[in-house]
Amino acid sequence: MNKIFAVALKDLTRSFRSAFALIFMFAIPLLVPLLFLVMFGNLADEEQGFELPVTQVVVVNLDEGGAGFEQAMTNLPGGMETDSLGALVVRVLQSPDFGDLIAVRLETEPATARSLVDNQEAGVAIIIPADFSAQYAAFDGQAVLEFYQDPTLTIGPGVVKSILNQFMDGLSGARIAVTVSLARLEANDPAVIGQVIEAYMAAQQQDGPSAARLDVRTPVQDGPARSPVLVIVGMVMGAMLLFYAYYTGVATGQGILQEDEQLTLPRLFTTPTPPASILIGKFLGVLLTVTVQVIVLLIAARLIFRVDWGSPEAIAMTIVCVILNASAFGIFLNSLLKSTRQGGVLFGGVLTVTTWIGLLPIFVGFAGGSNPMIDSISLSMPQGWIGRMLLDSIANASLGQIALSGAVSLAWTALFFTIGIWRFGRRYV
Amino acid sequence: MKAIEVTNLHKAFGETRAVIGVNFTVEQGEIFSLLGPNGAGKTTTISMLSCLLRPDDGDALILGHSLRKDPMGVKSVLGVVPQEIALYDDLSASENLTFWGKMYGLRGAALKARVNEVLEIIGLTDRARDRIKKYSGGMKRRVNIGVALLHKPKIIYMDEPTVGIDPQSRRSILDSVLALKSEGTTVLYTTHYMEEAQELSDHIAIMDHGKLIAAGTHNELVRIVGEADRITLSLNAESARLIEAWKRTRGVQQVDAEDGNLTLLVDDSNQVLPRLFEAAAASDVRITSVDIQEPDLEVVFLHLTGRALRD
Ligand SMILES: Nc1ncnc2c1ncn2[C@@H]1O[C@H](COP(=O)(O)OP(=O)(O)OP(=O)(O)O)[C@@H](O)[C@H]1O
Ligand SMILES: [Mg+2]
Fold first, then answer.
1. Nearest-neighbour CA in chain B from A5: distance (Å)
2. Which of A279, A293, B53, B148 has the highest CB neighbour number within 10 Å of its CB?
């Protein structure tokens, strides 16, 4: 037992002595999200985390209002000073909560607003039609507003869209509340409609704005507010962490072949140590190296980029699965090789291809989308299940919600370990 | 009990028969050398005796432990110095020794003390904290040996520990082998330098093409060739005719021509040399240098194989 640990600790020491390995294990995975941040955000405000450049928004509110809204204002003590749903939209956008993200400018002519966007003086134009409130009040109507954006921008308009989405979701909720209230009151008093909406919106506003909508796959949305850039940086960081965990698994798994070629493995076999203990020690060395790397990256990402990895149980479970799977994968792949000279195939081919396929959903996620087909392709790779666990965990999933992915990844792990141990065992023991 | 008793060891790698029916016995506390040229099968023999290679046939008892039945018992009484340096060059000498000490079952304070002792023995206390990769070839060789000393094994195998190093390091290694013997350690030593075998060994086995061709003390081996002398000559021109003439000359046992040098085995150089000069003059060839040597292992090897034991 002592000898197993001696071998593993020796390998751990050696892993962290190589400058080359350190670059791949820590520097690159942290550098990529950093570049991302520099490109899309800035590090200026320490308190708030990272910020986007402020998006210029032009709003043209043509809403003529509808019965009830004006009264609602008067009926509610301290109520919002709005006379139409359109005005409410404007108020939401102008809210100081979003001051860091968007700057609102009011215009009266839709054409002017659009040309401002065309001339790139504004990133987004929002045109609220005259019948916006009326359509909303009509129970079979559909309130639609025009969202006109600069096609060259993605993040800024995305932020505005997510604010609007949040608000519109709130409105649909309010409409259900209105319907229910009306059913109960058996009355069609416009003032009541106005009141209910106001009360509902006020309640919504207390929760604060959330931009989590950008987080497309989010299954649960009860987390605290997050900046969209941070969510993206979190995803980039997650992708890097996973990719380089597998890289480290494969690279340190190669240590068995290297020791064979550098003749220290045969020498180990001349010591009174059972060959199985030597191999187990080598496997444990891989596991410990990946463990240290993943935990350091996880904490560094939290401290440097304020990445929110999700609930402690979920991320802990995810991390255990990552470490086991990446280590087993490395041992398995190396067990298929005759010598380290074939190692290039592993790094250039198998490792890169399988990991990128597995992590595709994360990259699709950056673009703000999700694609069921890509999801299922990615799940053909063990890294796909791991990636999914991590994404879900970042999106605040509970332990139960990642349990299936965890179980599948553990099954892969067991398969890799079995084949790896069997092949290496047959070769050396 | 014998330190090492080898019976009928065989090992082939595909078509190559590396070791063919080797038998020998090593007494406790002696230095026993396997002397042979490149490819003779020395390393293959040592590998089998340290349980790294499974013999195709035969067995050996190492202090009574059978290679086949009790490999762990064998390994626990052995220290092995491999021919190639087998160390972690990204670790320091002291880290290497500490790690290998653990592999030999040492722990804690005893391990620490022993590592320091071994560093003294190999003369690297000053450089103990430097990584091996910054060491010279000779220093690496010394650490390579140090590893095998850690657990004070009863038997040490040293496979060509002096290859490719400066004379000073070589001397210190030979002295440490003699020191081991004086402490009662049994040493199985392989080399292709006959001077080393001659200086160190109580017994020598000469190996060639996988077989032991002779074994005994230095004096016993030399007696095989009788009172023969070895004459090394160089000529100003190559002459097959002269070599043929010499082979027929009375008192010449053997003529071996390689790389422009001629090595002759003769009964008594005093009598034979004038005849050699005569024949050379008759063939119009000048002898440009002559070197006469009393019988030694080189002569024995030449006598037994018809070839010189060259570096
Ligand atoms: N692993 C192997 N696979 C194939 N052939 C081998 C292997 N090891 C040794 N041989 C062959 O076996 C023969 C004996 O080799 P060995 O290494 O035992 O010689 P040696 O006496 O130690 O030589 P040297 O002085 O060069 O170290 C050689 O012909 C060598 O090519
Ligand atoms: Mg050899």
1. 10
2. A293
Ligand 1: does its nearest atom lie under 6 Å from the Cβ of B88? no
Contact A174, A197 (CB under 8 A): yes
Higher pLDDT, A368 or A143: A143
pTM of the model: 0.71
Atom of ligand 1 nearest to the CA of B37: 25
Q: Are strands B4-13 and B16-26 parallel, antiparallel or unpaired?
A: antiparallel
Q: Is B47 in the pocket of ligand 1 (CB under 6 A)?
A: no
The count of C-alpha atoms lying within 13 angstroms of the C-alpha of A112, restricted to the half-sphere facing its C-beta, is 9
Using the 8-state DSSP alphabet, how is residue A60 labeled? E
Domain A55-211 has CATH 3.40.1710: yes
Contacts of B102 in chain A (CB under 8 A): 2-3, 6
Cα B128 from Cα B112, distance rounded (Å):
13
Ligand 2 centre distance from Cα of residue B11 (Å): 14
Number of residues assigned to chain A: 429
Distance (Å) of CA B9 to CA A164, B48, B56, B71, B213: 85, 8, 7, 16, 14
Sign of the Cα pseudo-torsion (A319, A324, A329, A334, in order): positive
B110 at A interface, C-beta within 8 A: no
H or E element that contains A368: none
Rounded to the nearest 5°, which phi and psi values hold at B309? -90, 95
At the fourth CATH level, which superfamily is domain B4-222?
A: P-loop containing nucleotide triphosphate hydrolases (3.40.50.300)
What ipTM is given for this predicted complex? 0.84
DSSP summary character for residue A23: I
Per-domain residue ranges for chain B?
Answer: 4-222, 227-294
Among B179, B155, B184, CA closest to B26: B155
Q: Judge: B82–A6 Cβ closer than 8 Å, yes or no.
A: no
For the domain B227-294, what is the CATH superfamily, name and number? YebC, transcriptional regulation domain (3.30.70.980)
DSSP β-bridge partners for residue A126: A59, A147
Cα gap A175→A142, rounded to integer Å? 11
- Could you tell me the strand order of the sheet in which B57-62 lies? B16-26, B4-13, B57-62, B65-66
Residue A13's closest CA among A255, A268, A285? A285
Bridge partners, B215 (sequence order): B205
Taking only the tens place, the pLDDT of each residue in A174-186 is 666 666 666 565 5
Contact B67, B55 (CB under 8 A): yes
Residue in B75, B82, B102 closest to A263 by CB: B82
Give the model confidence (pLDDT) of A393-405 as tens digits.
888 888 888 999 9
Per-residue pLDDT tens, chain B, 311 aa: give them. Answer: 899 999 999 999 999 999 999 999 999 999 999 999 999 999 999 999 999 999 999 999 999 999 999 999 999 999 999 999 999 999 999 999 999 999 999 999 999 999 999 999 999 999 999 999 999 988 999 999 999 999 999 999 999 999 888 888 899 899 999 999 999 999 999 999 989 999 999 999 999 999 999 999 998 998 887 778 889 898 888 888 888 999 999 989 888 887 778 888 888 888 899 999 999 999 899 999 999 887 888 888 888 888 877 64
The residue ranges of every structural domain in chain A are 2-45+228-428, 55-211
